[in-house]
Structures are given as C-alpha cells and as structure tokens.
Amino acid sequence: MQRRHLIPLAIALLAGATAAPALAQAFPNKPIKLVIAFPAGGPTDITMRALADNAGKVLGQPVIVENKPGAGGTLPAQALQTSPADGYTIAQIPLGVFRLPYTTKLTWDPVKDIHYVLNVTGYAFGLVVPSDSPIKSWTHFVGYAKANPGKLTYGSTGTMTSPHLTMEQAAQKAGLQLTHVPYKGSADLMQALLGGHIMAAADSTGFAPHVESGKLRVLNTWGDKRLDKFPDAPTLKELGLDIVQNSPFGIGAPRDTPPAVVKRLHDAFKTAMEQPSYVDALKRYDMVPMYMSSAQYRKFAQDTFTREKALVEKLGLAKGS
C-alpha cells in the first residue's frame, strides 16, 4: 500500500480509538435522572439519595432522584424501555424485575434489554408485629396461623417483591395459609401495621425506629446471621426454614447506552459507594455496600432470572398456575 493511502487510514483508526474516551469525557453535560422503585422517606429513598448526591459530585452534574413506586418495584426498569439510551435516565433494579416475565406478559427482556451498570447494596429484612400483639415469637405466629387458616394478615411493600415471596416461601415450608396485603412502600406499610389494619409486616429494617420506640417487636430477620441491632431476633435459618434473603439491587441503563457512558456512570457510582456519607446512610438500615461490576452484575441478572423462575413456579404464582 502506498504511503499516501496509509495516512488517511491511520487518521481514521486514531479517530475511532479516541471516540469512546471523548464520548465519556463529554458525558454528562446536563442533570441525570435516577428512577427508584419505592416512595420518598423509606430506606431505599434515603440511601439512594445519599448515593446520588455523591455521584453527582463526581460527575459534575446533579443526579436527581425520581420516585416511581408500585407494580412490585418494577416501574423504573419498565421506564428504561422507553427512555433515550444516552445515560441521562438510569434506574434502580430491584430483584422483583427478574420475576416479572413469569407473572406478567412483557414485550421486553429483563436480562437483554437493560444495560447493567453496577450493584450497590442489598436489604436487611425481617418480620415485625405490634408490641401489644399476642404473637410474641415465630412459634406463636405459626401456632396462630395453623389454628386460623387464612386469618393471619401480613403486609409487604408490594406483590412479588422479595418480602412477599420470602414470606410465601416461609409459609409454604411451615405449612401455613396467610393473607397477604400489598402496600406501595415502607411508610404506608408501617402506618397500616401501627393502625391495626394488618397483624404483621414483612419489610426491610426501616421498621427499626418503631422497634426502638417500643411500638413493634421483631419476630425474625432474614440474613445469614443475626443483626447487631436486633440480637434477640433469630434468623429464618435458625428457625429451621433454610432461607436467606438480602435482595441485592443496583443501577441499570437503557439497553443501547454506549459502553463509554456506562463506564463513566459505573466509575462515578463506585466512587460514590465508597464515601462515608453513603456507608453511614446504609448503616441506619443495617445495609452494607455490595459492589458488583457491570460484568458481574449482568451475570447476576442472568443467574437470578433463572433462579426466580423456579421460585415463582414452586409457589404457584406463575402465569396460568
């Protein structure tokens, strides 16, 4: 090839090699919207706002949180399907997203149609009752439920959320028939429990202030070991149910978001996760940073999608079951 033909080729290759870094450097030049799956004032909202504030400082543009509760925490992921793939709309991806196709007719795929940015944390869950309830322990809970099939009411933060499915899994293992009442978020759920509208609540540890004030009692928690904040509450594993639930969640972007933009978002949010303000916000709810890279988070999504299918079918909650 003659020298005069090599020069344009070299320029073209150089332009291609520098395009991705240039795109990442230009992004963002306006505020970013982070859509989360639960209402304002709850554990998800408070911790994600701390994370968004930190990420905005790294990115040089504000990250604005938009609350989109309902539909079992899946509305933000659905919003990504109609959002421009430019990195300016991103969303929290709760575990319920991976159950959606098994219970609802979808025109999109939760694994293939979301660009997974990174995982940031997971929840600490438990089961609580009012402190004046005659149900003083899990043994009492089981006894009442068996003596009164279908009459023991419990609430969660939505149908097909992790609190709902974990309680149904526990009920199946213990041979119980419970009545589930869904709410849009922790604030509504706690109000219903304290108001006497339901008998128990399955939730993340946003219930802690009510326990500490003496209004609620913790019957069990759902991690691999007991929570430091509630050392007297046994885990589901200790109760013989062999269930651990921490429901990891992270951030996704529209499917066709450029890799350079995804990397910019990943790096900024990873740095944001490491800041003391975020770690301290998580501690309020017995949560910890739970980092997965983009590749790790994508693999987690694939594996979880398969695993949740088996769980939904086992509980008899799949479409047509």
Give the gist of this structure:
With 321 residues, this protein is of the alpha/beta class.
The end-to-end distance, rounded to whole angstroms, is: 67 Å
What name does CATH use for the topology of the largest domain? D-Maltodextrin-Binding Protein, domain 2
Largest sheet: 6 strands, mixed
In spatial order, strands of the major sheet run 2-1-3-10-4-11
Which structural class do the helices and strands define?
alpha/beta
Share of residues in helices: 40-55%
Instruction: State the fourth-level CATH superfamily of the largest domain.
Output: Bordetella uptake gene, domain 1
- By DSSP, the count of extended strands is 11
- Low-confidence runs of at least 5 consecutive residues: none
Tell me what you see in this structure.
- With 321 residues, this protein is α/β, with parallel strands linked by helices.
- The chain folds into 2 domains: 30-122 and 248-314, Bordetella uptake gene, domain 1 (D-Maltodextrin-Binding Protein, domain 2), CATH 3.40.190; 125-221, Periplasmic binding protein-like II (D-Maltodextrin-Binding Protein, domain 2, 3-Layer(aba) Sandwich), CATH 3.40.190.10.
- Helices cover 41% and strands 18% of the residues.
- It has helices at residues 3-26, 43-59, 75-80, 100-103, 138-147, 162-174, 186-194, 208-212, 259-273, 276-283, 294-314; strands spanning 32-36, 63-67, 89-93, 114-121, 125-130, 153-156, 179-182, 200-204, 216-221, 249-254, 289-292.
- A 6-stranded mixed sheet has the order 2-1-3-10-4-11. A 5-stranded mixed sheet has the order 7-6-8-5-9.
- The longest helix is centred in the first third of the chain and has 24 residues, at 3-26.
- The protein starts with a helix and ends in a 7-residue tail after the last helix.
- The model has no long low-confidence stretch (mean pLDDT 91).
